[in-house]
Amino acid sequence: MTTLPLAQGTQVWSREQRYTALEQVPAATLGELRALVAASPWRQGYHIQPPTGLLNDPNGFCFWRGQYHLFYQWFPLGPVHGLKYWRHTVSADLVTWQDAGIGIAPDSMYDSHGAYSGSTWPLEDELLLVYTGNHRSPDWQRMPYQLAAHWDGQRLRKDAPFLSGPPAGYTEHVRDPKIWEEGGEFFIILGAQREDETGAALILRSPDAQRWTLDGELHTRLNDFGYMWECPDYFALDGMDVVLLCPQGLPSEGEARRNIYQSGYLLGQLDKTNWHFEHGEFAELDGGFDFYAPQTTLGEHGERILVGWMGLPDMTYPTDTHGWAHCLTLPRVLSVEGGRLRQRPVPALECLRGAEVGLGGDAGERFELRLQPDAGPFVLDLRVSEDGAHFTRLSFDGEWLSFDRSQSGELPELDKPGLDAGKGGQVRRIPVSAVRELRAFSDTSSLEIFVNDGEAVLSGRIFPPPHSTGLRWSGGGTAQLWRLNTPAEMGGNT
Ligand code: FRU
Question: Which of 81, 176, 295 has most ligand 1 atoms within 8 Å of CB, for mutation?
Answer without folding.
Answer: 176
